[in-house]
Amino acid sequence: MDLTYSLGLVIPELVLTLSGLVLLLVAAWGGNEASKPVSIAACVALGGAFFLTAPAVCAGASGPDTVAFFGQLRIDAWAGLAKLMIYAAAGAALVVAPAYFDRLKAMRPEFAILVLFAALGMSIMVSAADLLALYIGLELNSLAAYVLAAYLRDDDKSAEAGLKYFVLGALASGILLFGMSLLYGFTGTTSFSGINVAIADGLSGGQLFGLIFVLAGMAFKISAVPFHMWTPDVYEGAPTPVTAFFASAPKVAAIALLARLSLEAFGTQATAWQQIVGFAAIASIVVGALGAIGQQNIKRLLAFSSINNVGFILIGLATATLAGASAMMIYLAFYVAMTVGSFVALLMLKDADGNQLETFGDIKGLSTTQPALAWCLLLIMFSLAGIPPLMGFYGKLVIFRAAVEADLIALAAIGIAASVIGAFYYLKFIKVMFFDEPVDAVKGKSDWAHWALLVIATLVISPIAFLGTEWLGGLAEAAAAALATAG
After folding, report:
1. Where are the membrane-spanning stretches (predicted)?
2. Per-residue model confidence (pLDDT) at position 293
3. Do residues 142 and 118 lie in contact, with contact meaning Cβ atoms separated by under 8 Å?
4. Nearest CA to 485 among 59, 74, 51?
5. Would you state the pLDDT for residue 465?
6. Residue 100 backbone dihedrals phi, psi, to 5 degrees
7. Tens digits of per-residue pLDDT, 149-190?
8. Which of 102, 128, 144, 463 shows a CA-CA span of 20 to 30 A to 117?
């Protein structure tokens, strides 16, 4: 394998790297006045990386031709499809951020650069085919994320969110690193394919401990129960554009990485981790649903909603099949649209002075005062609840179908029953917006960019999107097939 060939495979990552470095210099020389040009340039860089990645996804890239840097990275369709979602979510965060930070006089060019480097770290994560590449990508993303959480330096909540995220993130990274060292010590290799071969005849005690520690570290990154405790506080304290970013792009990256790790590195011993993943799935669904019921702050409710949705996605992983992996990708695509849409709608809840409104008391009677916004929120919440004919229902349908096909009927039944709990707090939005007396608190005007993103997200989760499910299903199946050809 030649270095030039490897560099050719990672052109999207090179675009992000060079763009980030150049914009870093522009920010240093231009100061805060460079914020808008830097944000625009970062969006262009993400768009360029998106279009450079798309051909590999459409072609279903897989096999030895996708291996880069002597087995460190795998630039296949699985990684590519995840990257498309990551770049889209990161771009959405950059689009909505200026209006939010300008009001607080806190818009600085570092925000766009941090998002760019976080996206680069996530790109490495989803392409990782070796424990070393995995850790480099994970830490590049995490270091940028810690700073983003504490971005508002004069805000106590933001500082608290950043500190909590950093301390618990460092703990999770330590757990993950310890598990990786155990795996290396007891298998003699750090490559996913090498680990898969080493454990093919059975797991030793050391290998099993390594596997458990690695899964525990990854569970923190996707905020799966019982490693979810940081999520509500960080989501509430971080600036809302940052929360929108956290709830979408890093989730995609961590889940795609977890699936690759489980199926490529631990695939020959699936029975050793299926029960762990199954428990985390059900626990996340139940805890996410019950935790959200009593919330009055919308950002905290959406944090528990994200925990709940991770549970459904993990049911797909628990199947340990390519059909389950394909279903995960389909669910993630609609999850990103629903998450971006819900946070964009939240950013549009402003009073006459432009201050953000974040509680249910602020949106009473919203259908009377802001009908278009209320109806978009209604569709998004119904979709999150999994109510047909919206695409949130379709995402759950493919997940449960994969579970039934894998003879995990009990897991699917429990998941379906638990999803009913989640419908309660999503319906709370509808009750407050459409049936409570109007308080007329939402008076702020939103720009065209917010409306454009909200309309796009609403259309993606509407019944119209059923026209594209066959196409999306084909891409997801090709992406999942790429995992089977690894090695």
Report:
1. 6-26, 38-57, 77-99, 111-128, 165-186, 206-230, 273-294, 301-323, 329-349, 370-388, 408-427, 448-467
2. 84
3. no
4. 74
5. 84
6. -70, -50
7. 888 888 888 888 888 888 888 888 899 999 999 999 998 888
8. 102
Q: What is the pLDDT of residue 487?
A: 47
Determine the Cα–Cα distance for residues 110 and 148; give it in Å rounded to an integer: 9
Contact in structure between 74 and 484 (CB atoms under 8 Å):
no
User: In which residue are the tokens 């009377």 written?
Assistant: 368
DSSP string across 46-103: HHHHHHHHHHHHHTT--SGGGEETTTTEE-SHHHHHHHHHHHHHHHHHHHHHHHHHHH
CA distances, 126 to each of 73, 213, 322, 416, 422 (Å):
9, 19, 17, 29, 29
Contact 182, 247 (CB under 8 A): no
Q: Which two tokens stand for residue 280?
A: 């985390």
Rounded to 5°, angle at Cα 231 from 445 and 99? 20
What is the full DSSP assignment across 328-370?
Answer: HHHHHHHHHHHHHHHHHHHHT-B-TT--B--BGGGGTTHHHHS
Q: Which residue has the tokens 């959405």?
A: 92
Beta bridge partners of 73: 68, 128
- The identity of residue 486, as a single letter, is A
Domains of the chain, by residue range, sit at: 3-485
340, 457 in Cβ contact below 8 A? yes
Give me the amino acid identity at 217. G
Amino acid at 203: L
pTM of the model: 0.92
All residue ranges of the chain with pLDDT < 70 are 1, 444, 485-487
pLDDT at 312: 92
- Two tokens at 47? 């768009």
Do 312 and 415 contact (CB within 8 A), yes or no?
A: yes
